[in-house]
Write a structure and sequence with these properties.
The complex is a heterodimer of chains A (about 250) and B (about 260).
Chain A: H1 8-34, E1 44-56, E2 60-71, E3 78-80, E4 87-91, E5 94-99, E6 102-106, E7 112-113, E8 119-120, E9 128-129, E10 132-133, E11 153-155, E12 160-163, E13 166-170, E14 173-176, E15 182-186, E16 189-192, E17 197-199, E18 203-207, E19 209-211, H2 217-253
Antiparallel strand pairs in A: 1-2, 3-19, 4-18, 5-6, 5-14, 7-8, 9-10, 11-12, 12-13, 14-17, 15-16
Chain B: H1 2-27, E1 37-43, E2 46-50, E3 66-69, E4 72-79, E5 86-88, E6 95-98, E7 103-107, E8 110-114, E9 120-121, E10 127-128, E11 134-136, E12 147-150, E13 155-159, E14 165-170, E15 173-175, E16 183-186, E17 189-191, E18 200-202, E19 211-214, E20 216-218, H2 224-256
Antiparallel strand pairs in B: 1-4, 2-3, 5-20, 6-19, 7-8, 7-11, 9-10, 12-13, 13-14, 15-18, 16-17
Helix pairs in contact in B: 1-2
Classes of the chains: A alpha+beta (about 250), B alpha+beta (about 260).
């Protein structure tokens, strides 16, 4: 049986690959830290999978690493803002919004009204209820929505919006069959990349609250330490591989 | 690593802006009619390193994609029009709005809106703000007036020493579909904007407009404890992002030292 021969250059390649992965992890960690205060933000994470026995030539085998990006679904903590136009989803699901480029999804419930009295995201994208933008009719809300106490706009835990006890629609709260097929778009939005949308079941809408970012700063700090130390180790191994090659060259020169 | 440096920089910039807003809120903790602001963030765009469903070297399809985010950006600084506390001043021209609505004032031919009801009289007997902006609709208090009365529904009456009515008028309130879209110009004044929508005129106490309380001032709606807590969070978030910058810098340094 053939043993696996190690080519020193392969070692260098391995180290390089590992260094690149650390770079990627650093970017992800940094982005998480930059978004510690972004409403509805879900932390990104990378998992490494080693894929064994990739043949390079007839004798050499290489271990190469696949990295899996995934979005942490953990619930973010709720912050009470007292604004009756702020909604938080406790549990699964996303709000559905209409952007100029099509339907998008968000967990950030810091909504406001635009001049047409539609419920919109801070970017001005209308929030959908029963597939249409929510219009808070001026006749019915002349009063309230300034504070939670005198708000005429109410939302039930299921997301049914009502003004003065009159139902005006149900917020579209949706989930997906395959979370690996949804993609972040920036602006606190997600889009589906082939994932099938379906009505969410296990959720509760809280009015007057915003779901905060689920980034855990302690975990990210530990990540930073780990990344730095791993990178350091990789750097050392590249150094020693380099020194070996140097020695090899000086021996042959004699 | 360069990506990480820039992402962390956006984080630091965002927190800096947050601190600016908190500082302004705290500076105005005693300003009548002041409404606090809040910064809202959103994640910046994402770089797609690999799309889900791409072909791997093994010939299989990747189950998930690879996206790296490039930081954060502030999307809005929102004014929060929650009710401020009332302060009893016993000044007859201190008017507080209990509920929705703004006073409209004119200054140099421009129209402004305010919730700061600390009005005064000017030399011609007009009711003006501390900056001299006239309350709209204009009302002159005739000479010989000793007492001014304002009812809850905004009827302002000037009375002489015998209790006879010298002049009477109606104070109107104004509102917007989206008050958060108003443009703050400072001096407790707001201007109408496209985002706020068209002004709606109304009589105090009717159609959902607030009522007027004479002898009271609406104070700032800034909550000091809340701002302090936000300041702590901001500082720590800033610190965390600076650590990320430091780590990226260390990694770059190590990478540079690979070459002897």
């Amino acid at each position: 049986m053939d043993g696996i021969k190690i080519n020193p250059h392969l070692g260098l390649l391995e180290a390089l690959e590992a260094a690149q992965l650390m770079d990627r992890r650093l970017t992800v960690t940094t982005n998480n830290l930059a978004n510690v205060d972004t409403p509805g933000y879900k932390a990104d994470s990378i998992a490494f999978i080693e894929v064994l026995t990739k043949k390079i030539g007839p004798k050499y085998k290489k271990i190469y690493k696949e990295n899996l990006f995934f979005i942490k679904k953990e619930q973010g903590i709720l912050e009470y803002t007292g604004d009756p136009l702020h909604f938080a989803i406790v549990g699964e699901g996303f709000f559905k919004v209409q952007t100029p480029n099509g339907i998008a999804y968000t967990r950030a419930g810091n909504f406001t009204l635009d001049r047409e009295r539609r419920l919109v995201t801070p970017e001005g994208y209308p929030v959908l209820a029963n597939g249409t933008p929510v219009v808070v009719d001026p006749g019915m809300t002349r009063e309230g929505y300034i504070t939670m106490e005198n708000s005429k706009l109410q939302v039930s835990p299921e997301g049914i919006l009502s003004i003065d006890m009159t139902e005006i629609g149900r917020l579209d709260v949706v989930t997906f069959d395959d979370y690996s097929k949804i993609r972040k778009l920036g602006q606190n939005l997600y889009i589906s990349d082939g994932a099938q949308e379906m009505r969410a079941e296990n959720y509760e809408i809280k009015q007057g609250y915003i779901e905060k970012s689920n980034v855990n700063p302690i975990r990210e700090m530990v990540n930073l330490i780990e990344i730095q130390r791993t990178f350091e180790a990789i750097q050392r191994s590249i150094r020693s591989l380099d020194e070996e090659t140097e020695r090899l060259i000086t021996i042959t020169q004699r | 690593m360069i990506r990480a440096l820039w992402s962390a920089a956006t984080g630091m910039q965002g927190q800096q802006l947050q601190l600016d807003v908190i500082a302004n809120n705290l500076a105005n903790v005693n300003t009548p009619g002041f409404k606090k602001s809040r910064v809202e963030f959103e994640d910046l765009f994402y770089q797609n390193l690999k799309l889900p469903g791409a072909l791997t070297a093994e010939g299989t399809l990747t189950p998930v994609g690879m996206q790296v985010g490039l930081g954060v950006r502030p999307v809005a600084i929102v004014k929060l029009f929650t009710q401020g506390e009332y302060q009893l001043t016993n000044q007859e021209l201190d008017l507080a709005i209990e509920g929705r609505g703004f006073f409209k004032v004119t200054l140099g031919g421009e129209e402004y809106y305010t919730r700061a009801g600390n009005f005064k009289l000017d030399r011609d007997g007009y009711i003006v703000t501390a900056d001299g902006a006239r309350l709209y609709p204009e009302f002159t208090v005739p000479t010989g007036t000793v007492k001014i009365e304002v009812t809850q529904d905004g009827i302002i009456t000037a009375l002489d020493p015998n209790g006879n009515v010298l002049a009477q008028s109606q104070i109107l309130l104004y509102d917007f579909p989206n008050p958060a879209g108003l443009y703050a110009v400072g001096r407790n004044l707001f201007k109408a904007s496209d985002a706020a929508g068209d002004e709606i005129e109304g009589v105090p106490g009717q159609n959902g407009f607030g009522t007027i309380a004479q002898g009271y001032l609406e104070m700032s709606n800034v909550d000091v404890v809340e701002e302090m807590v936000k300041m702590i969070i901001t500082q720590r978030a800033y610190e965390a992002n600076s650590k990320a910058v430091l780590t990226a810098d260390n990694l770059l340094e190590m990478a540079n030292s690979l070459k002897r």
